[in-house]
Amino acid sequence: MGMSAGYYLSRSGCKTLLIDAFDPPHTEGSHHGDSRLMRHVYSGGPDYIAMALLAQKLWHELEETTGDQLFVPSGVINVVDPEIHSFHNRLSHADDAGIRYETLHAAEVMKRWPGITIPEHYEGMYEPDAGYLYSEPCIRAFRKAAETHGATLLTHTLVEHIEYGPHSVAVQTSGGETYHANQIILSAGAWFQTLKPFVDLPIQAVRKTVGWFDAPEALYGEEHFPGFTLAGKEGTYYGFPSIGGSGLKMGRHDTGQVWTPGSTMAPFGTEETDEGDLRRLLELHMPQAAGELKRGSVCKYEFTSDEDFIIDRHPAHERVWLAGGFSGHGFKFASAIGQILSDLVQTGHTDQDISRFTLSRFR
């Protein structure tokens, strides 16, 4: 989110400094692992749907600006056990927004994608205009575009102190420098706890895992298989086709282990569930993709209690904007959120409805 905001601010002519503890793109945030789903028929309601459509438009604009392919329109099939989950409450909002989708019975899902096996009472909803983003190239594109517009990026630099003043904000870094700004954005992802006591947000960092499994290309290759979500009694899962022969990628949205920022994160395979949860789901619903584990990876989520975002002004300091708690579903919105943050810094308001993302809901 910070790299995106840096791009839109610098493009608008603002003098922009970006500070990162690492060297983006990197593996210490929530953006590595090759791919992220880009969906539009969103369960959060019309405000999320409007933001998803804006994000899609802005991703395309970024592609045109940089000449890089960032989005693949693979389509996304969403499969649910209707006894536990339903997508019907979001379809009226999708209709209002003019989003294309198809509702499918289980037999229709399995006929179109023979690699999927589901009980006959399951339901499907296919989004033909959805797909996936290449996550690390997206970060590189924002970085390149921001620097082209004059933004400065400090890498491998920690924020050690923040002093809030009536006319500016002073940020002291691990390099011994102090930078003064009219306004700042704090978007530290799963690392927000390291910014206490300067800001204290109700965010819980969680260790998550994803795996890539050997799967027949004729069934699960990128030319034949869409992105997917699958929600049932086993949990809530998501995944991607085998991209360039990498194997079918799958992760689990729910569950995970609490992680303390700064502590060592256990590598993939430390917990039985790291591979076990994914393999059990594959054996049930995509048995031909339950081949050898080709690769496993760990990443970080930053959960709020309601899994909605935080996009708000600091409650005590009007020159400070906060963006966090993206709860494992924020990457697709990064382009839109960057523009929103740029608007907030420059004008104090945005045309997007962000009322549900305020900190006041936690009081």
Description:
- With 363 residues, the protein is of the alpha+beta class.
- The protein folds into two domains: 1-31 and 136-199 and 306-363, FAD/NAD(P)-binding domain (3-Layer(bba) Sandwich); 76-128 and 204-303, D-Amino Acid Oxidase, subunit A, domain 2 (D-Amino Acid Oxidase, Chain A, domain 2), CATH 3.30.9.10.
- The chain has eight helices and 20 strands.
- Strands 4, 5, 6, 13, 14, 15, 16, 17 and 18 form a nine-stranded mixed beta sheet that branches. A three-stranded antiparallel beta sheet has the order 2-7-3. The chain has a three-stranded antiparallel beta sheet with strand order 9-10-11, with no helix packed on it.
- Helix 1 runs parallel beside helix 5 and helix 1 packs across helix 8 (334-347).
- The chain is globular and about 65 Å long.
